[in-house]
Write a structure and sequence with these properties.
The protein is of the alpha/beta class. The protein is 34% helix and 21% strand. Helix 1 packs parallel to helix 2.
Length: 137
């Protein structure tokens, strides 16, 4: 299962991939979302992969980068991944090269992701309210 919530008022997209989710479905969902609402490419993302047990392939990540590229923000944006995978930071580093202006970070829990975003957004006009739907971690 894939859960996604777009919080336009917080400029934040929350994505949770459950145990039975397929990464390719998330790729299609993201491409559709960015096509319909290009502004979401300029938002920060929290991707909760703590229960995800599927596979993601370089071609899948490349498809997301292709959908993202025409709408990339000039401002610094972040995608924060919550995952127990000790090697996911390698994917994150590779994604930094694929997504212009976007930095990818890895944390053990969604709460840690949100804490990081609150810290980097601590400047005037950048603060976010904690989303109530972040129930795990």
């Amino acid at each position: 299962m894939i859960f996604r919530d777009v919080a336009h008022d917080r400029r934040l997209v929350l994505v949770r991939l459950g145990a039975g989710a397929h990464f390719r479905h998330m790729v299609a969902d993201f491409a559709d979302l960015v096509q319909r609402e290009p502004v979401v490419a300029t938002y920060d993302y929290i991707c909760d992969l703590t229960e995800f047990c599927g596979d993601a392939f370089a071609a899948d990540v490349g498809a997301i980068a292709t959908a993202y590229a025409p709408h990339a923000s000039r401002a610094a944006t972040y995608t924060c991944f919550a995952t127990p995978d000790p090697h996911f930071h390698l994917w994150a580093r590779a994604m930094d090269e694929l997504f212009r202006g976007r930095s990818h970070r890895v944390f053990p829990t969604p709460r840690n992701c949100l804490d990081f975003l609150e810290q980097v957004r601590s400047g005037p006009g950048r603060a976010i309210r904690r989303p109530s739907l972040l129930v795990s971690g």
